[in-house]
Amino acid sequence: MNSPVPTGDDLVRVLATLSNPHRLRVVAALAGRRNYVSRLARELDISRALLQVHLKKLEAAGLVTSRLELSEDGKAMKFYEVNAFAVRLTPQDIVTAVQTLTPAGQAPADHTNETDEKGAT
Amino acid sequence: MNSPVPTGDDLVRVLATLSNPHRLRVVAALAGRRNYVSRLARELDISRALLQVHLKKLEAAGLVTSRLELSEDGKAMKFYEVNAFAVRLTPQDIVTAVQTLTPAGQAPADHTNETDEKGAT
DNA sequence: GGCACCTGCTAACTTTTCTTTGCATGTGCA
DNA sequence: TGCACATGCAAAGAAAAGTTAGCAGGTGCC
């Protein structure tokens, strides 16, 4: 894990991710039961391509997790499930979060491909 | 008030509003003490025009309130203060919120100019 | 082989959001 | 009058996000 306590940048990322109706619906759908991409797309009635993009964002924000599995008949299926999370948003929480916000103008670190680096700095 | 319980659309609006570093900083700054536009702009070191746009969004989302006041020396100053709010975000909360989401493709009602309509429907 | 499933990618387009620039108004004061 | 400080707004450009369309690959089965 990166940091046990979410930084301001993390918060921004999570909020940005959840501020989209499609993604909200995806999370809600997965909260019931895990599902694989094609089926979820049919159930939500959106294109698979579109769903894939949203799922990637959700995963990048750490809100869902994917797992590639092989069904009995040998087909590759990517299952997604929601991670447990709980964000509280009050003015005071924001005061705290802002303290760990990357200063304007700088890139807030890319959490896209981060398995688990352990730097010895 | 419109509805005591925030609808899914409200949630999306709030999250979209708070998913911006500038606006997060504004909320944090106002959480300490209320302030007027020009001064706040100087303190946050952003242009007044930019701040104004962000403040409008925050107000539209119901997160801050503005009040035009006249200083002792007669100058008009617009003070902003944060409203108390508390949003909880868990998968389960999202399941609930999604139930009151405007179906895709439709306009989610414009809360921009809403003083306090009381419809007799 | 042809069809029905599954995944993954990207180029291109549309839409939304963000930000700057510039000008308008008003006050008080030297 | 000219300067400092306050507000407000809109046009226009730049950047980011959302969406579609089309292609690739793979498996199993009739």
Attribute tags:
homodimer, 5 helices, 4 strands, DNA-binding
Description:
Two copies of one chain form a homodimer. With 121 residues, chain A is α+β, with helices and mostly antiparallel strands. Chain A has helices spanning 8-18, 21-32, 37-44, 48-60, 91-98; strands at 35-36, 64-70, 76-82, 87-89. In chain A, a hairpin with a 5-residue loop joins strand 2 (64-70) and strand 3 (76-82). In chain A, 25% of the residues are buried. At the A-B interface, helix 1, helix 2, strand 4 and helix 5 of A face helix 1, helix 2, strand 4 and helix 5 of B.
Summarize the entry for a quick read.
Chain A is elongated. Chain A has a three-stranded antiparallel beta sheet.
Strand order of the largest sheet of chain A: 1-3-2
Number of helices of chain A: 5
User: What is the 3D shape of chain A?
Assistant: elongated
Kindly estimate the percentage of residues of chain A that lie in beta strands according to DSSP. Answer: 15-25%
Oligomer: homodimer
Largest interface: A-B, 36 and 36 residues
Distance between the termini of chain A: 16 Å
Helix content of chain A: 40-55%
**Class computed from helices, strands and strand pairing of chain A:** alpha+beta
Low-confidence stretches of chain A at least 5 residues in length (pLDDT < 50)? 112-121
Largest sheet of chain A: 3 strands, antiparallel
Order of helices and strands of chain A: HHEHHEEEH
Radius of gyration of chain A: 16 Å
Q: Strand tally of chain A, please? A: 4
Mean pLDDT of chain A: 87
